[in-house]
Amino acid sequence: MPKAQRSAPYPVVKLRAGREKSVLQRHPWIFSGAIAAWPDRLEDGDLAAIAAADGRQLGYAYVNRRCSIAARLVAFGETDPRAAIRESLARAVALRRALFDPERTNAARLVNGEGDALPGLIVDQYADALVVQISTLGMERLKPLALETLVELVQPRAIYEKSDVAARYEEGLTDAVGLLYGRDFGPLVVVENGLRFYADLKRGQKTGLFLDQRDMRALTEELAAGRRVLNGFAYTGGFSVYAARGGAARVVSADSSGGALRLAQGNYALNGFPVAPEDFVEADMFAYLRALEAGAFDLIILDPPAFARKKEDAPRAGRAYKDLNRLALAKVAPGGLVLTCSCSRFVDEKLFGQIVFQAASEAGRNVRILHRHRQALDHPVSVFHPEGSYLKSLLLSAD
Asked: Nearest Cα to 300, choosing from 314, 308, 288?
């Protein structure tokens, strides 16, 4: 693994007069319109010092002039940016070690981008392996430093990169997938709240598992006793396994991917639950709900993939979310529960609430909100960067 090199002094990027307020409030993004001029000796992806129009030092950021977010801060004030990155990584790892007992949960997010003062970097730990996802050119340039520090802090068996997100294309990058450190490996078995799951870090969605829904899966376990549960968009059956441990009368897992359902069956068996093939249904969730007999389930879980991957998708996504929730609310048993989720960044919490309101109205049910999303502790959001909050969930009661 290449050693991280330090190069200084850093070119200075000056902001327009009056545009320093967000940086002083520790927001890590600087938009292109805030920048007065670019220095000559600065390439996209480089680190630069950020200064107010009057010359005050504000911090250090990596830059990319081709993007609307032209600079992302990794250090504020006078702190050297490379030292700040190492310190941010150390704080992030220490937080997770304080949060989790590895005997009960050994799959967790170690770095959550701006939530850990490391924009463009996601790091997930699965047992003794790490998965890294880099979404920006500046963090791509800083990858040697990040890897060197992670190896020192965590001493993993392997680090695998899964940088295949759309944001990379906006940054002028292509996909980067492969082993970065250590020896190659296959699917792993990890532990989450005492339950065991297969994690295919290479072929699975995101980095292997949806770690951000851990606490909502635990909520499902609390609610499941005696209920007939439908896990829509089940993927590898995380919600289903929790519901089974919670004493559900029946759990049906529906997903359009046969491969995902086979993994879901494997996770069921891994935890000692009997596998009934008829309870793992390969189907389009919209079509499945339309054909479903009303009252067949007491708890319906909807955790679909992002329907809006860019801002222009939001209107179409809104219609899809409305139809999905209308169908679920119409079909759930009287007094039943619907846990509905959205991970679309461009459908914010207010809009999602409006969509659910419209769905409830069209379903003709009296619907109450019992619970809002319980944020997974290893997915912190900076109070200075509320844009980092993307996952929304509502637990609904339908009379």
From this structure: 288
Catalytic residue from among 343, 355, 367, 394: 343
Indicate whether 120 and 34 sit together in one domain: no
Q: What is the DSSP letter of 25?
A: T
Identity (one letter) of the amino acid at 89? L
What are the distances in angstroms from CA 225 to CA 110, 219, 222, 247, 375?
33, 12, 7, 4, 23
- Give the distance between the most distant pair of CA atoms in the chain: 69
Range of the domain at 144: 82-189
162 and 37 belong to one structural domain: no
Mean pLDDT, range 140-157, rounded to an integer: 98
Say if residue 106 is in the same domain as residue 227.
no
Asked if the model's pLDDT at residue 5 lies above 70, the reply is no
Three-state DSSP string of 205-224: CCCCCCHHHHHHHHHHHHHC
Q: Are 336 and 395 in contact (CB under 8 A)?
A: no
Q: Based on the domain organization, do 165 and 215 belong to the same domain?
A: no
343 as an active site residue: the answer is yes
pLDDT, one tens digit per residue, over 65-117 is 999 999 999 999 999 999 999 999 999 999 999 999 999 999 999 999 999 99
Identify the bridge partners of residue 159 per DSSP, sorted by sequence position. Answer: 130, 181
User: Cα(304)–Cα(302) distance, rounded to whole angstroms?
Assistant: 6
- N- to C-terminal Cα distance for the chain? 59
Q: Which of 50, 64, 65, 42 is nearest to 20 (CA)?
A: 50
Same domain, 180 and 308: no
